[in-house]
Amino acid sequence: MLTWCLALVAAQAHSPKQDRAVVISARNFIRSLGGAAGLAIASAIFSNTIVHQISVGIPDQLASRIQEAVFEVPDLAGLSEEQKGLVLDLYARAARSVFYLWFGAMAVCLGLMFFIKDKGLTRNDEEKESGASSVVDSGELLNAKAEGAI
In the chain, what are the domain boundaries? Predict the structure, then answer.
């Protein structure tokens, strides 16, 4: 959550005032799109891992129910301890596959972070305005000194 707030502040700081509404809307849209894409990718990996790694020790009827409804908790009543362990291991492997995907993605982001240059929070038009006003202020100061007001 914190990184998204920082991204919003940085986007607002580097955009002209008349484009701030567009920048905020685009950022929110991209955030929603990223969340939906991430959830879809994680769900696909989770379900494919479960479907393709159902082991031999799980009864065929339970295996078919798991394959039909991957995201529902299967009823483990009536299974032996070994079969319960196989089902739980199956779901643990699926969760581990999703973890490995996001761990790799975060490692790539961490590596790419070193290529980001800090540009501060001052917009280019504000730098020009502050530079012009400082020239005027120093010019007025020189005129005031010449007239003997200071």
Answer: 2-121
